[in-house]
Prior knowledge:
Layout: H1 5-15, H2 25-38, E1 45-49, H3 57-60, E2 66-71, H4 74-87, E3 92-96, E4 110-114, H5 122-133, E5 139-147, E6 166-167, H6 168-177, E7 180-189, E8 192-199
Parallel strand pairs: 1-2, 1-4, 2-3, 4-5, 5-6
Antiparallel strand pairs: 5-8, 7-8
Helix pairs in contact: 5-6
This protein binds S-adenosylmethionine.
Amino acid sequence: MTQNPEDHAARFTEVAEEYDDDSSEEYLACASGVIEAAAPEPDDVVLDLGAGTGAIGLALAEDAGRVVLRDLSEGMLDQAREKIADRGLSNVEIGEGSFREPNYDGPVDVIVSNFALHHLSDEEKREAIRIWAAYEPERIVLGDVMFFEEPDPSVSFFSPDVDDPATVGTLVEAFTDEGYAVADVQRVHDQVGVIVTHRIGEGDIVPGAE
Ligand SMILES: C[S@@+](CC[C@H](N)C(=O)[O-])C[C@H]1O[C@@H](n2cnc3c(N)ncnc32)[C@H](O)[C@@H]1O
């Protein structure tokens, strides 16, 4: 079972001030994988969805032309705002927005999302990925809790009350259905991974296509 978006936002706002103090080895490896794979060019616009306190988007701001951070939790966004001010970043736009209503209508070259999409049901994840693909970014890089195999209940990166991770297969299918080819799947843990996708352009050879 997952909560509604307002409940997720309130839950994260409550822990926002301490959020950065408590990072597992797997979370850090996943975040690094997303940052490395996003690899924006100096003119690129990066959209970070479920951006939280800005771990991914702000790390990319030095290399990208512009970074847009969106999250539902004002408390998490406030933490990110403090970092933007501390670091003197002038190319970051930050505001409220969700996976399915990002509240942004400019151009996007790279979409990133880390450790956040698993709050949605699988059907909602598919809908979110459809909406992301409509921006036609060159790359979408998703780091998240995802199942590479039947999850071991004694080691868990999710709470069934509030989280609903998908299998890697479900996520890969959602991306390919929207015209994104999966270039890499990094297995950080059997419950944590990074999926790197590229937009399939005209003239690309797609195995199995007519
Ligand atoms: C575990 S934090 C991850 C934050 C950040 N991406 C990181 O890597 O540290 C999950 C974030 O997802 C946000 N979130 C949950 N549901 C969301 C939704 N439907 N749309 C946008 N953000 C959402 C929460 O508010 C929270 O900030």
